[in-house]
Design brief:
Blueprint: E1 4-7, E2 13-17, E3 20-28, H1 30-53, H2 55-58, H3 76-85, H4 99-108, E4 116-123, E5 126-131, E6 137-141, E7 161-165, E8 173-177, E9 191-196, H5 199-212, E10 221-224, H6 225-228, E11 238-242, H7 248-267, E12 273-278, E13 281-285, H8 297-302
Antiparallel strand pairs: 1-2, 2-3, 3-4, 4-5, 5-8, 6-7, 8-9, 9-12, 10-11, 12-13
Helix pairs in contact: 1-4, 3-4, 3-5, 4-5, 5-7
Length: about 300
Amino acid sequence: MSAVREIDAAGRWHYRHGPIDVHIDAAGARDALAEAHAASWQCFSGILPALVAELAGLRSPLPPAAAGQPCPLKGPVARRMWHACVPLCADFITPMAAVAGAVADELLLCYRREGITRALVNNGGDIALHLTEPPALRIGICADIAAVVERSMPGAGAWDAILSIAPENNVGGVATSGWRGRSFSLGIADSATVLGRTAALADAAATIIANAVNLENERILRAPAQSLKDESDLGERLVTVAVPELTDEEVASALERGLARARGLQASGVVAAAALFLQGRCRVMEPLGHAHSFWGEQAGALASQPGAWV
């Protein structure tokens, strides 16, 4: 299957190649945009074949001492994936945890040029950002993907939270993970959205944080990843298949575990902020030493219950 592209209903470029599905929205001078779009399309066409060529290495777990070792991968996107996971290698993680964000980051490089004022590369919900001037960018978050079809979109009622990101916030990526998403999760978070310096780093960190939103409960249905998808990079590890209705105490406990992991990653400079969602409850981790709140009124409403904001 060859890579294809088209203009979508919103006037954005839409690139597709196998499992990669990217929407690109950019603003700036006409000539600069034309050059950037041409460069991103040329880049995109070679990404999937390069990743497939290194798939065995991309599915291999990083060793705990990866930070002191040279990257064994060759392609630029594969190496970007590996390096994004290195700060998280104390946990089980493979470079595949950062694949969506790394692809978005690679394409975004084509738009980091004079004449481009803003660019968004959205790869299946993981977004790489290039913002040089106001206004702030607003991004809607839906904690339960299955609920999207039941909502009228677009519209304020469609979102569980609305992010507001300004150029001075130095956020280059937004990524979300959770058991309801496209990828498997070891945890039970409906979603964990993370803001970071790059989309690849946010993608990998979201995976780890979503895994940490967890609970020992025999009613939670889990299955070996490989039994659900051949050649999963998670192998025989148990991934979440279904989560029953939990008590308030169970939800709070699971969210607190994820929040503790997020705080540790924030303290080490891996992530800037995060929002964790589970069964209608939310925990929000704001940036350190920063007066700006990224999260809008919807998250505030979910978090208005006791102990929600941190």
